[in-house]
Design brief:
Order of helices and strands: HHHHH
Bound molecules: zinc ion
Oligomer: single chain
Radius of gyration: 19 Å
Number of helices: 5
Structural class: mainly alpha
């Protein structure tokens, strides 16, 4: 069972800085993602060997983005409708494209942040067994 009280719950600027650069949460040098604008997590860090692919963040970043975009875009669309009353197609183009742009822009960095936070707050999950270290 993981010890969730192992790391203090305070912001770790260095860790978040590494995550926003999409670098390994342990060494800060190796890339988390495959080359290009990929969202696929590398099997392991090229610099320190930390196994990254076993700790994929799953749907977490998408869920956070859904909540954030809903909180941001729905009130904005309602206010825009109240103030300007544009045709329906303007709403579709404006808010649809804005949601797509924000999602594509933020998903990669949010995924890296969640992997970094998992690394900090769930250290037991990242421990390697002796058999794995001999590979
Ligand atoms: Zn590393």
């Amino acid at each position: 069972m993981a010890d969730y009280n192992a790391a203090p719950l305070r912001p770790d600027a260095a860790l978040i800085k590494r995550a926003l650069a999409c670098k390994c949460p342990k060494c800060g040098k190796g890339d988390i993602f495959m080359p290009g604008f990929s969202m696929t997590v590398c099997a392991q860090c090229s610099q320190c060997g930390l196994k990254l692919s076993e700790h994929d963040s799953g749907d977490g970043p998408a869920v956070f983005l859904i909540f954030f975009l809903g909180f941001l875009l729905v009130p904005s669309a309602l206010l825009f409708e109240y103030l300007f009353a544009p045709p329906l197609w303007v709403h579709g183009v404006l808010w649809g494209s804005m949601a797509l742009i924000i999602t594509l822009g933020a998903l990669r960095y949010l995924k890296a942040c969640i992997i970094a936070l998992q690394f900090k707050h769930r250290p037991g999950d990242w421990a390697q067994t002796p058999e794995e270290d001999q590979e």
